[in-house]
């Protein structure tokens, strides 16, 4: 029994084709050593055929790791076409387009003596699409995405964090790629008193130097929820800084319409209801809106519905935004105020019409 087999199955089920390739190579090596040359050759042939990028990726197999914990400090993923669609405010969309365009035309720009822009800093609230945008850029540029595991990079050993940073950058420099420094503010953790003051300086200097030396045919993307924690010298290193904010009304409409189509529904042709959903999701992140629609769809299916019901979506919005103040009465009020009919309320909350009517009267008399 070869333990690689389990790893290959596991990686295959997780759609991690690179891992499948790596472990298959190992397996083929063992088989060859054990005299099973025919099957070993067949495996090698399959691996070779599976992708034209194998050769490129070979240089990336020996990942850097932290000397103390032995935890690998990067993750690699190869861009694959997905159905994920991202929605941003128009200004941000334009900036992303410009960034991609200037990367694509970097040779032309360099010829004209213009420095290219290959550093992008993304900041903003959780669930606004920072990590997804890094994946999207990887797909658009067809560059592998090397994500630095920054919590693993920060070492408790004096001097080791700067060394880990250098190793990550050296690794990324082996081939054109996107080096993604997700949760970038983790590096600010070393400000705490566990570390001596000089350590922070060393880390900042190491980062700056590595960013400055980074090859121009690769891209650095950093993402953070806490831009204020970043050192100003590092902040300045990024030519393009984009705040991915909570979506405005127009973008929310696109997001609501997009996620409504998760399954057949009873409201997308009703512009009044769509408008109401846009209003009710004010201040919510795209990630929150996505999960509301997912939960609503799941609950509709579990209740035996073949459609996503407007009343269920409104109910899930209520549950999402009022986790502490959840009461039957508040739920009914919220649904009344969001264009859900009394019959739909009684059905979706399994309540008598009399109960719904009495809350309805109360709401109307207070208006
Ligand atoms: N602008 C967007 N348009 C459409 N979907 C989005 C958008 N932003 C986020 N999502 C959805 O929410 C999920 C989570 O988003 P993502 O992880 O990219 O957010 P993030 O900004 O990196 O959050 P965090 O700060 O918590 O790391 C994504 O898988 C995506 O489906
Ligand atoms: Mg993220």
Please, could you describe this protein's structure?
With 367 residues, this protein is of the alpha/beta class. It folds into three domains: 3-50, no CATH class; 74-243, P-loop containing nucleotide triphosphate hydrolases (Rossmann fold); 249-366. It is 55% helix and 7% strand. It contains 18 helices and six strands. The chain has a six-stranded mixed beta sheet with strand order 1-3-4-5-2-6, sandwiched between helices. β4 (178-181), α10 (197-212) and β5 (219-224) form a beta-alpha-beta unit. α1 (3-13) packs antiparallel against α2 and α12 (249-260) crosses α13 (271-280). The longest helix has 17 residues, at 17-33. The protein is globular and about 75 Å long. The model has no long low-confidence stretch (mean pLDDT 90). Adenosine-5'-triphosphate (ATP) is lined by residues 84, 86-88, 126-132, 225, 255, 286-287, 290.
SS element count, helices: 18
Please give the largest β-sheet. 6 strands, mixed
State the separation between the terminal residues, measured CA to CA: 73 Å
Task: Please estimate the helix content.
Answer: 40-55%
Q: What is the percentage of strand-forming residues?
A: 5-15%
CATH superfamily of the largest domain: P-loop containing nucleotide triphosphate hydrolases
Question: What strand order characterises the main sheet?
Answer: 1-3-4-5-2-6
CATH topology of the largest domain: Rossmann fold
> Any idea how many domains?
3
**What are the bound molecules?**
adenosine-5'-triphosphate, magnesium ion
Q: Tell the overall outline.
A: globular
Query: Overall pLDDT, averaged?
Result: 90
State the assembly state of the protein chains: single chain
* Number of E strands: 6
What is the architecture of the largest domain at the second tier of CATH?
3-Layer(aba) Sandwich
Runs in which pLDDT lies below 50 for 5 or more consecutive residues are: none
């Amino acid at each position: 029994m070869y333990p690689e087999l389990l790893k290959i199955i596991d990686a295959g089920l997780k759609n991690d084709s690179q891992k499948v390739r790596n472990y298959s190579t190992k397996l083929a090596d063992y088989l060859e050593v054990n005299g099973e040359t025919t099957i070993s050759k067949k495996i090698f042939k399959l691996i070779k055929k599976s992708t034209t990028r194998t050769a490129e990726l070979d240089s990336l197999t020996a990942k850097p790791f932290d000397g103390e914990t032995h935890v690998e400090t990067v993750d690699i993923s190869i861009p694959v076409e997905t159905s994920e669609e991202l929605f941003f405010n128009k200004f941000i969309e334009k900036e992303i387009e410009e960034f991609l365009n200037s990367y694509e035309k970097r040779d032309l720009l360099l010829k004209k003596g213009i420095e290219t822009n290959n550093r992008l800093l993304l900041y903003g609230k959780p669930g606004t699409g920072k990590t997804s945008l890094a994946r999207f850029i990887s797909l658009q540029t067809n560059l592998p995405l090397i994500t630095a595991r920054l919590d693993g990079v920060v070492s408790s050993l004096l001097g080791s964090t700067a060394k880990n940073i250098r190793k990550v950058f050296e690794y990324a420099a082996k081939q054109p790629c996107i080096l993604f420094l997700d949760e970038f503010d983790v590096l600010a953790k070393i400000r705490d008193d566990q570390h001596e003051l000089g350590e922070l300086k060393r880390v900042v200097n190491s980062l700056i130097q590595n960013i400055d030396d980074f090859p121009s045919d690769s891209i650095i993307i950093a993402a953070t929820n806490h831009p204020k924690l970043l050192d100003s010298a590092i902040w300045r290193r990024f030519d393009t800084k984009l705040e991915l904010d909570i979506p405005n009304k127009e973008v929310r409409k696109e997001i609501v319409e997009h996620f409504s189509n998760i399954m057949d529904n009873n409201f997308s042709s009703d512009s009044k209801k769509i408008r109401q959903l846009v209003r009710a999701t004010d201040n919510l992140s795209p990630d929150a809106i996505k999960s509301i629609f997912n939960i609503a769809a799941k609950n509709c299916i579990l209740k035996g519905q073949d459609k996503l019901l407007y009343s269920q979506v409104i109910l899930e919005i209520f549950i999402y935004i009022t986790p502490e103040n959840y009461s039957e009465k508040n739920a009914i009020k919220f649904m009344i105020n969001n264009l859900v009919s009394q019959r739909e309320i009684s059905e979706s909350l399994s309540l008598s019409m009399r109960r719904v009517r009495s809350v309805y009267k109360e709401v109307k008399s207070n208006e």
